[in-house]
Amino acid sequence: MTLTTALNFMRLHKRRAAVTAGVFVGYTGICYKARTWESEIWRLAIAGSISNAIVECTFHFADTVNIRAKASEKSVSTAAMISKIYLKDGVLGFGKGFSACFYGAAIYGFTYFAIYKVLKGIFKDKFGDKVDFAICYLLAAFVTESLTLAFKFPFDLIKCRLQSVNQIFKYKSLPHAFTKEITTNGIGSLYSGSLPYFATYATFVCLQFSIYERII
Asked: Which of 25, 60, 88, 142 could form a disulfide with 206, with the two C-beta atoms 3.0–4.6 Å apart?
C-alpha cells in the first residue's frame, strides 16, 4: 500500500482512524500500568488479553485467505486466492474484519484468563479432596470457555462475514454490523451457528488446558 493510498484511506475514514488511535493508546496504557497491579488475577487477565490479541492479529492475514478459500464457490489454491484478494481489494483486502478480530481477541483473552484463574481455585478448594485435581481443571476450563465464548462468538461471526461474504451483508463497519444485526434480526442472530462452535471449541480448549495442568 503506497503512502498516497494510506493518506486517502485516512481522509475517508477519519472517525474510524480517530477511534482506532484512541483505543490503541488507551489499551496500551492500561497494559503498561498492569505491570504494577497487586492483583494476580488482573495481571493474568491483561497478559492473556495481550497474548491472545497479538496471536490473533498477527495471523489475521492468513485467516482471511483461509476463510475466503473456504467460502469460494470453486476450489482455488492459496496462491490464487492471495492474488484474487489483492487484485480485487489491494492490501486492505487482507485486513477486512481486523477490528472485530482485535476486539474479540482482546476481550476473550482478558475474560478467559481472569475467570479461569478464579474458577480453578474455587473448584480445587471445593472438590480437591474428593476427585483428581485434573477434573477440577477440566471443569474450570469448560465453564470458563463456555462463558467467554459467549462474548467472543459475535465478534468472530462478524469477522468472518466481513472477510468473505460482506457483499451479502453489506456491513460498513464493526459498530454498523452489530447495530444492523440487532435491529433487523435481534440479538439471537449474533449467535447463528454458535452451538457446534461452542461444543467443538469449548471441548477442545478445556481438554488442552487439563492435559497441560496435569503435565505440569
From this structure: 142
3 falls within a domain: no
Q: In whole angstroms, give the CA distance from residue 52 to residue 108.
A: 8
User: How many other CB atoms are there within 10 angstroms of residue 93's CB atom?
Assistant: 17
Q: pLDDT tens digit string along 96-131?
A: 999 999 999 999 999 999 999 899 888 888 876 777
Using CA atoms, how far apart are residues 94 and 65, in angstroms rounded to an integer? Answer: 7
Q: Is residue 121 part of a domain?
A: yes
**Is residue 124 in a domain?**
yes
Give a yes or no: residue 1 inside a domain.
Answer: no
* Mean pLDDT across 158-173: 92
pLDDT of residue 215: 79
Q: Which domain holds residue 139?
A: 13-58+96-215
pTM score: 0.83
Residue linked to cell 495471523: 59
Q: Which residues contact 170 (CB under 8 A, 6 or more apart)?
A: none
Domain count, the chain: 1
Contacts by 153-157 with C-beta closer than 8 Å and gap 24+? Answer: 153/190, 153/191, 153/194, 153/197, 153/198, 154/104, 154/178, 154/190, 154/191, 155/100, 155/101, 155/103, 155/104, 155/107, 155/108, 156/100, 156/104, 156/197, 157/190, 157/191, 157/192, 157/193
> How far is it, in rounded angstroms, from Cα 182 to Cα 85?
29
